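Subject: Sanity check before I submit

Could someone independently write out the structure tokens for this chain? I want to compare against mine line by line before I put it in a report. The sequence has 131 residues.
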Amino acid sequence: MATEHVTVAIDRPADEVYAYAADPAHLPEWAAGLASEELTPSGASWVVDSPMGRITIDLTPPNPYGVLDHTVTMPTGESVYNPMRVIADGDRCEAVFTVRQRAGMSDDEFANDISAVRVDLETLRGRVESS
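---
Independent answer below. Compare away.
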């Protein structure tokens, strides 16, 4: 299976970007590929209607390392682990999302996933740089 690391440089400190991106209330503002409406808490998870259908999101607990990993449970019951990091670079940072081609995913679907993640990271950059 193929893997692609999608990276965007952000002209804001890593801790600011991490704090914004880690807040589930902000996901609909920058992660349209995942959620376009408010998330509902469900125990330790979050539930939302997404472009993929109703999904459950399990977020990595807050941490000082910029780790924003999350697992998305699809409507089919399939769980997809998504590694994401905010990496400090002086007074700037990089947001890095690892996209993996899942079993049964065509090359075109994989390319579409990569494009959607790139758009989401660019939106994240726009949100935090304008605040």
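---
OP: Matches mine. For the report I'm noting this point. The radius of gyration is 14 Å.
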